[in-house]
Amino acid sequence: MDTSFIKGIIPPIAVPLKADESFDGAKLRRHVDFVIDGGISAILAFGSNGEFYMQEEDEMKDILDVMIDQVSGRVPVFMGIGAIRTSKCVRLARMGVEHGAKAVSILQPMFLKPSEDELYTHFRTIAESVPEVPVLLYNNPGRTGYGIPQTVVERLAHEVGNIVGMKDSSGDMTQTEEFIRRNADVDFKVMCGKDTLIYAGLCVGAVGAVCCMANFVPEMVCSIYDRFVAGDLKGSLQRQFALNPLRLQMDRSSFPVATKDYANLLGLELGAPYLPTKNSTESQLEGLRDQLVKAGLL
């Protein structure tokens, strides 16, 4: 199974919305072109910053069709899945692959706190429903309330042929290192999920990062990865340090609205998030704008 394309900088693509919360296909097409032109390696549909948890299945199908049509084979498209029920995840995985997704990424179930056996069965069942494509696990304890245990990841990596990697958003570099170390013998590919830790992740063997900031400053984010793989470690670290103040300012807004706020400030017209979340307050927008000015982006 080809997994060579699982690398680099991948944005969890934000979905532009109209006033009635339907997605804006024309602006989505323009946004896809923007991030590709910015040098990204792939696109993740329905990641956390893609607001997957707000979308119905028929909406997801229509959004995915527009993305894949606009991408037109220029970069791979990953299908993100974050449902609680295993059978729904299977349905979404198959839908994604049938519509052209080249890989599937699966978040651990929200709200529940499954046992290790239950988690293992959940991930294995979904992966085995789409044996023709690579599957990545998505560890995000900050949003689900618990992490995927190392033992579960190790079993899945060694026992399920198409579970070939993961995105780790724990922010714990020991966890990231262990996901890499324990599964190095099967070429398990780990992506960093924290924009502030791209450089650190690459240093311990991550193959890239899934970065919300690649939605609005793709060239800046990609420069961290590009300089690293070119051997310019000092330059890569400098770009990471330049990115961090922009990312840390985002934490003052409710999740995940700052991605769209930054994009809107830069003229990308991604609109508002789905209710009940709202665009940032004026005082917070001033903070975001100030960081863009300091970074020389406005």
Which labels suit this protein?
TIM Barrel; 8-stranded parallel sheet; 46% helix; 8 strands; globular; alpha/beta; 11% strand; 298 residues; single chain
Describe the structure.
The protein has 298 residues and is of the alpha/beta class. The protein has one domain (8-230): Aldolase class I (TIM Barrel). 46% of the residues lie in helices and 11% in strands. The chain contains twelve helices and eight strands. Strands 1-8-7-6-5-4-3-2 form an eight-stranded parallel β-sheet.
SSE layout:
Blueprint lengths: L7 E3 L14 H13 L5 E3 L11 H15 L5 E5 L4 H13 L4 E5 L8 H14 L5 E5 L1 H4 L5 H10 L3 E6 L4 H10 L6 E4 L5 H6 L4 E3 L7 H12 L3 H18 L6 H9 L16 H13 L4
Parallel strand pairs: 1-8, 2-3, 3-4, 4-5, 5-6, 6-7, 7-8
Helix pairs in contact: 1-2, 3-4, 4-6, 9-10, 10-12, 11-12
For the record, the CATH architecture stands as: Alpha-Beta Barrel
Poorly predicted ranges: none
Straight-line distance between termini: 44 Å
Query: What is the CATH T-level topology?
Result: TIM Barrel
> What do the pLDDT scores average to?
97
